[in-house]
């Protein structure tokens, strides 16, 4: 047992993880975590690795720039606490499996407290933000020509972009649930997943869990306006295509929303803010936390409780502003 190398144990664990049909995203995260560990520690006998080795490795991740996870080459950076936690979870899973398989006598990761990730601020869009971005879908920026008035052109993707915005705002879907991700081999939402007659869509979320989500009449109408122009499309075709007729990717959607936000004067516009906006407004308008958890596809109530806290603060502020006892100064 003492002669089995770290790389060999990793290979065995990944074979087991694939057999258990872990999601492509989880497998990619684990592979990157193990890559970072091997870059730091080399390839020693697995049984020789001790808790202090893992502790030094995690400390290194908090301080030294590393290449981020993903298939696209990107500049090295210091990982966030959440990314370090994800690596800790991957290493813990590796040692749990190794102990079970008799490849390690003790769980060297469990002796270390997991990193505490930062909680990024939740910043929903306002109604005026969304309205401005919908208007920005219609036309290009104004441009001038010598001796002529400034003008702007109709954007050929206006119907698609409006449908995307309304769908994300109406359902809180993740971008990975509607767009293709070539690095993970996932294809997002297909035309067969859109049921306009019954006003609902089907998405495949984390852990390959399927959800059926209702959509409003306005969102259904926006999707119809976009899809009616694709009469030759098959049921297996992606719902959303880019300007070249190829499946819209996650990075493509992120760039699109950033550009629309820039034209609309909305700062820090990115797709995930639509998910936040849906969640908070769902609670503001009378939805409950358990319903929201199901709609968002969360496995626990932890994130939902953050939305509940924000919505509760909003309600309390509205009460202070609207209460007759406060306003009438009785």
What does this structure look like?
Helix content is 50%, strand content 6%. The radius of gyration is 24 Å and the shape is globular. The protein folds into two domains: 6-100, Tyrosine recombinase, N-terminal domain (DNA polymerase, domain 1, Orthogonal Bundle), CATH 1.10.150.130; 127-322, Intergrase catalytic core (hpI Integrase, Chain A, Orthogonal Bundle), CATH 1.10.443.10. The longest helix is centred in the C-terminal third of the chain and has 21 residues, at 302-322. It is mainly alpha-helical and 330 residues long. It is built from 13 helices and five strands. The protein has helices at 6-19, 24-41, 51-63, 81-100, 127-136, 158-171, 175-178, 217-227, 250-264, 272-284, 289-296, 302-322, 324-328; strands spanning 143-145, 148-151, 194-195, 200-204, 210-214.
How can the largest sheet be summarized? 3 strands, antiparallel
Q: Helix- and strand-based class?
A: mainly alpha
Total number of strands:
5
The helical percent reads 40-55%
Average pLDDT works out at 87
What's the CATH architecture name of the largest domain? Answer: Orthogonal Bundle
Question: Spatial order of the strands in the main sheet?
Answer: 3-4-5
Question: Whole-number radius of gyration?
Answer: 24 Å
CATH class of the largest domain: Mainly Alpha
Fraction in beta strands: 5-15%
**CATH-defined fold name of the largest domain:** hpI Integrase, Chain A
Query: So, the CATH homologous superfamily of the largest domain?
Result: Intergrase catalytic core
From the N-terminal CA to the C-terminal CA, the straight-line distance is 79 Å
Supply the number of helical segments.
13
Residue windows where pLDDT falls under 50 for at least 5 positions: none
């Amino acid at each position: 047992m003492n002669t089995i190398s770290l790389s060999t144990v990793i290979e065995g664990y990944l074979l087991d993880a694939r057999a258990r049909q872990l999601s492509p995203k989880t497998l990619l995260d684990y592979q990157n975590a193990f890559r970072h560990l091997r870059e730091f520690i080399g390839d020693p006998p697995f049984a020789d690795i001790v808790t202090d080795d893992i502790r030094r490795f995690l400390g290194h991740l908090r301080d030294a720039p590393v290449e981020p996870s993903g298939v696209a080459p990107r500049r090295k950076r210091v990982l966030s606490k959440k990314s370090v936690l994800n690596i800790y979870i991957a290493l813990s899973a590796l040692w749990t499996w190794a102990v079970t398989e008799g490849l390690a006598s003790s769980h060297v990761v469990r002796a270390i407290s997991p990193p505490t990730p930062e909680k990024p601020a939740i910043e929903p869009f306002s109604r005026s933000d969304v309205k401005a971005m919908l208007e920005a879908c219609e036309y290009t920026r104004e441009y001038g020509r010598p001796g002529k008035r400034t003008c702007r052109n109709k954007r050929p993707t206006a119907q698609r972009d409006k449908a995307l915005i309304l769908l994300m705002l109406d359902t809180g879907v993740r971008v990975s649930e509607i767009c293709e991700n070539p690095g993970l081999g996932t294809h997002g939402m297909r035309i067969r997943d859109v049921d306009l007659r019954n006003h609902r869509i089907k998405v495949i979320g984390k852990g390959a869990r399927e959800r059926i989500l209702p959509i409003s009449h306005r969102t259904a109408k926006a999707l119809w306006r976009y899809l009616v122009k694709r009469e030759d499309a098959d049921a297996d075709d992606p719902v959303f295509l880019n300007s070249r007729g190829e499946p819209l990717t996650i990075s493509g959607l992120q760039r699109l929303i950033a550009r629309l936000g820039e034209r609309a004067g909305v700062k820090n516009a990115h797709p995930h803010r639509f998910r936040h906006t849906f969640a908070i407004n769902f609670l503001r308008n009378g939805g409950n936390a358990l319903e929201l958890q199901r709609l968002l596809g969360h496995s626990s109530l932890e994130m939902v409780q953050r939305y509940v806290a924000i919505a509760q603060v909003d309600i309390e502020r509205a009460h202070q502003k609207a209460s007759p006892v406060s306003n009438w100064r009785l």
